[in-house]
Amino acid sequence: MSSKLHVVARYSLSLDASGGMTRLLLWSDDGGALAEIAVLDDDRSVPLPRVSADLSHGSGFLHRSSLPALLDLLRNEPLVYVALEDEPVQSIRIHS
Mind listing the pLDDT tens digit for each residue in 17-73? Predict the structure, then answer.
């Protein structure tokens, strides 16, 4: 299994009041985007994430009901990590 662990240096949340997509961007210390997470309504199925071949960044989805817990993690934990994996399936794990 190939994986790479990154430290999240900062994040940004884009909210679209017109009913468009809410997006959470996670950034590394050098300013590179680590992950782009699109927030979906809870009644929608979540597509599989995509991870770059070099495991430097990825894009994924989560349900709206999971967003408060993720924001709480980002605000309150001193270190938050993004683990990007490409085997056995591509995955993005965000954890402290």
Answer: 776 789 999 999 999 999 999 999 999 999 999 999 999 999 999 999 999 999 999
Spatial neighbors of 76 by CB under 8 A, at least 6 apart, are: none
φ/ψ (deg, to 5) at 24? -115, 125
What region does 31 belong to: left with phi over 0, alpha with psi -120 to 50, or beta? left
Q: Which two tokens stand for residue 87?
A: 């085997």
- Show Cβ contacts of residue 40 under 8 Å, excluding neighbours closer than 6 positions: 46, 61, 62, 63, 64
